[in-house]
Each structure stands twice: as structure tokens, then as C-alpha cells.
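Next comes this protein.

***
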Amino acid sequence: MLAGATVMVLTQIAMVAIMTMTPVHMRHHGHSLGEVGFVIGIHIGAMFLPSLVTGALVDRVGRIPMATAAGITLLAAGALAATAPGDSVPLLALALALLGLG
């Protein structure tokens, strides 16, 4: 139980750190509120839609492999968000989708 709680806390910290700065970053680069809303909407969809099968995946694959997959996905999201050009809505949407999935 402690391992699961630790994974949840660490993944939430990573998500909040990236997600809270994305709208500020996008507005700084001249994106409209519609584009910001689109990217955040993609993130929210990627965060909640997979929850329909997450429990079954953890039961089938195991806690450690799923926690590892989440960590790798969050690392990829952070790397993509950090290196995506400021004017690229598709790359920012992909980064936030990975962030939500992780």
C-alpha cells in the first residue's frame, strides 16, 4: 500500500509541475485561449478515459510494471513538453496527453 501511495504522490507532483505552467507558457507564446483549452482538454481526456481499464491492467500486468510504465510515460511527457517549440500546438497537446496518461 505504501508503494502505491508513493507512486501516486510522485506522479501527481510531476503532473502538477508541468500542467500548471503549460497555459502560462502557451499564452506567453501567443496562443489563444481556445488553443490552451484544447490542449488542457486533451490532457484531461487522457487522464480520465484510461481509468476505465487501469485497474484491470494493474491486476493483469502487475504493480511494478505499471508503475514503471507510468514513470517512463511521465518522463517522455516532460521531455517533449520541455523541447517542443512554443508555437507547436500538436506537440504540446501530445506532451499533455502523455502527461495525463502517465
